[in-house]
């Protein structure tokens, strides 16, 4: 059985404030990393570039951008994922 961390009924699954790692995937372009970083900065103005880790697909066509940010409430997490999902360069989020 899986639990949806993005469901308001499951607020107790994450204790706030906390460091929160998100993953966004898309085509391997320089703009994708900058886009993800800009969205992360919207929710954590103190986020640094050294908090980014990248993982390339086997063929190099896609990239996974992982960034850890500091969040204080569930609304920040919901807003972050809404912004990521709304961006056309981002194909999938985790």
TrEMBL record:
Belongs to the UPF0250 family. InterPro entries: UPF0250_YbeD-like, YbeD-like_sf. Coiled coil: none annotated. This is UPF0250 protein. Pfam families: DUF493. The lineage of its organism: Bacteria, Pseudomonadati, Pseudomonadota, Gammaproteobacteria, Thiotrichales. PANTHER family: UPF0250 PROTEIN YBED. Gene3D superfamilies: 3.30.70.260. One of its GO terms (cellular component) is cytosol.
